[in-house]
Design a protein that fits this description.
The chain is globular and about 60 Å long. β4, α5 and β5 form a beta-alpha-beta unit. The chain has 12 helices and 13 strands. It has a domain of 210 residues: NAD(P)-binding Rossmann-like Domain (Rossmann fold), CATH 3.40.50.720. The strands form 4 sheets. A 6-stranded parallel β-sheet has the order 2-1-3-4-5-10, sandwiched between helices. It is an alpha/beta fold and 345 residues long.
Length: 345
């Protein structure tokens, strides 16, 4: 890409899209376009095609998606599969029809089988059953990945795919029902710390920025405690499952760096795993977060809740062989994320 190449970021306000935008701006790219969901409904085929034919972006980062953790995936599976398939289908096909030079599709490591051999190689795709708790999302992402592969094969278009590991960082989703595990634990411990210190100014400031159903400005401390306890938040924090599943986490700004690298240097048909190649137990991750947040309370586990996939560690040999490795360690990334969370506007 040249610095004046016309680049479209789909999903520029999300965790990944906003990081891509920051990265491109830091690198001096000057012709970046994007639209909010209010300006362009990505599930509307006609609207998306009209946008592409009018703007004719040369490069496309497809980071728009309906995302969430185990609770959200279990509760809204129809919404997850419908919205994600519509978004990716409309954008990929419109990029083809409008002559985009290159497109990079963002998938997720949940596309791989639940009991996949570890670490997970790209070739393990479609070799076994998916994890039931995020099956709808995974199927949608597999469809997008395969669509890019077949458009490349049939039409000769440079449409590539990247499969990031579990992500976290600036602009993450901290909603108590819809967030992924790491930001959810950060917020739980932040609120738990404040409740334990009887710091209601901090609690109310957090709830003002991230509302929780049933809590408004008139709610007293007892009502707040009662409602937050349903989410496992109090002087002790409750986590779903045993805490034994192992997860690999990547700071989102490292992902953006990897995506720009792939856009400039990779044109293979295989999707590319993006991760750190390192993992640890959820329980260990929770203790790292407690240290960063300053949470001194107990961490307990709700064994009636599912663990999800036992382990997800990506084999990142292909990316490393291309010449890229991650830079931000987990402790540093958690600290940066928490600092952003408590200081955000």
């Amino acid at each position: 890409m040249n610095k004046d190449s016309k680049i479209y970021i789909a999903g520029h306000k999300g965790l990944v899209g906003s990081s891509i935008l920051r990265k491109l701006e830091r690198e001096g790219f000057t012709n970046i376009i994007y639209r909010t969901s209010g300006e362009l409904d990505l599930t509307d085929q006609a609207a998306v095609l009209s946008f592409f034919k009018r703007e004719k972006p040369e490069y496309v980062f497809l980071a728009a998606a309906r995302v969430g953790g185990i609770y959200a995936n279990n509760t809204y599976p129809a919404e997850f599969i419908y919205r994600n398939i519509m978004i990716e289908t409309n954008i990929i096909h419109s990029a083809y029809l409008s002559g985009s030079e290159k497109l990079l599709f963002l998938g997720s490591s949940c596309i791989y089988p639940r009991l996949c051999p570890q670490p997970i190689k790209e070739e393990y795709l479609l070799t076994g059953p998916l994890e039931p708790t995020n099956e709808a999302y995974a199927i949608a992402k597999i469809a997008g990945l395969e669509m890019c592969r077949f458009y490349k094969r049939q039409y000769g278009r440079s449409f590539i795919s990247a499969m990031p590991t579990n992500l976290y960082g600036i602009n993450d989703n901290f909603d108590l029902e819809k967030s992924h595990v790491l930001p959810a634990i950060i917020r739980k411990m932040h609120l738990g710390k404040a409740i334990g210190q009887d710091d209601w100014k901090t609690v109310r400031k957090d709830l003002d920025k991230n509302p929780v159903e049933g809590i408004d400005g008139k709610a007293d401390s007892q009502k707040i405690i009662s409602i937050l306890s349903k989410y496992g938040i109090g002087e002790e924090v409750t986590l779903w499952g045993t805490g034994k599943p192992r997860r690999e986490f990547m700071y989102v700004d490292d992902l953006a760096d990897a995506l720009l690298f792939l856009m400039n240097n990779y044109d293979g048909e295989s999707h590319v795993n993006i991760g750190t190649g390192e993992d640890l137990e959820i329980g260990e991750t929770a203790r790292l977060i407690a240290g960063a947040v300053g949470f001194k309370g107990n961490i307990v586990h709700d064994l009636d809740k599912p663990d999800g996939t036992p382990r997800k560690l990506l084999d990142v040999s292909l990316l490393r062989n291309c010449g890229w490795t991650f830079k931000t360690g987990l402790e540093e990334g958690i600290r940066k994320t928490y600092e952003w969370y408590i200081n955000r506007d």
